[in-house]
Structures are given as C-alpha cells and as structure tokens.
Amino acid sequence: MEFDDLIKAGQLKKEHTSRQKISEFLLFAENEIEAAKFNISRFPFTAYKSAYDALIHAGCALIRHCGYRPTTKYTHATITEFVARILGKDYEHLAARFKRMRRKRHPLQYEAKFLESQEEVKNSITQAEELIRKIEEYIGIKSPRKRLF
To answer: With contact defined as beta carbons under 8 Å apart, do 24 and 56 qualify?
Structure first.
C-alpha cells in the first residue's frame, strides 16, 4: 500500500520501530481500554477519551509496524486515515467509527462540550476493543500483558 500522499503532505515519515516499542504502544492501548471501562459509569466523557486514546496508541503501533511514524502535522487525522487504508473494506465500519470518534472528541477536548449518551460511549469502547484486536492480528504482536496468558 502506498502512502506517498501522506509523506508528501508531511504527515508521515519513514522510521524503523522495534517490536518491543510496538508492543509498548499496544500495552498503552490496553491500559486506556481498561481505564475507559473503569470510568464509564461515573465519568463517561473520560471513558470516551480513554477509548479514543486507546485507538490512537493502537493506530501508532500499526503505523510503526509498517515502517512509518506520524509527524506532528495532523497527527490524529493521519492515524485514523492510515488505519482505514490498511484494514480495508472488511473493517471499514470500525475505521469509520475511529474517524467519527476523532471528530466528536474535538468539542470535548477544546470546547468542554460532551454530547454522547452512555450507550454511545459503551459502543465506542466495544468497537475500540474490536479494532485493537484487529490491529494486533494484522501486525502479529500482542501487548506484553496478553503474552502472559
């Protein structure tokens, strides 16, 4: 798969990343999912942000597995686009959810506005877990915690 457009736009750089570091990104993703589940009943906005951050970490693992790293230019948009391109049609509904979460996170982060229902937050966490599992499958690396079992 080609990413020349993202490289030319200054959104991606070629970079080798060790399997250990990729595994650490996946561990961060797993920790964020656990935080999302823990916070959902009392702090749904925090749970939503944690689910989103989990996807960012898993997306970074995927990008680095493919020999790139996102730059500081449109970082989150680059990660969501990369994930969508790599996973393709079979998982486009999950990639679309990731993109939607990015757009919905913006008012939460920068305008102190949160409009999601408890059910929407719960669905976001569930779908984030599914997307993370797919990314782990694709790259063939599990987080250090999952390797223990």
So the answer is: no
d(CA 54, CA 120): 16
User: Tens digit of pLDDT for each residue in 15-28?
Assistant: 999 999 999 999 99
Task: Write out the CATH class of domain 18-147.
Answer: mainly alpha
H/E run at residue 12 = strand 12-14
**Residues 53-102: tens digit of each pLDDT:** 999 999 999 999 999 999 998 988 899 889 989 988 777 787 788 888 87
Q: List, as own/partner pairs, every contact residues 142-145 make where C-beta atoms lie below 8 angstroms and the sequence separation is at least 24, other chains included.
A: 142/23, 142/26, 143/23, 143/26, 143/27, 143/29, 143/30, 144/23, 144/24, 144/27, 145/27, 145/30
| Residue ranges of domains in the chain | 18-147
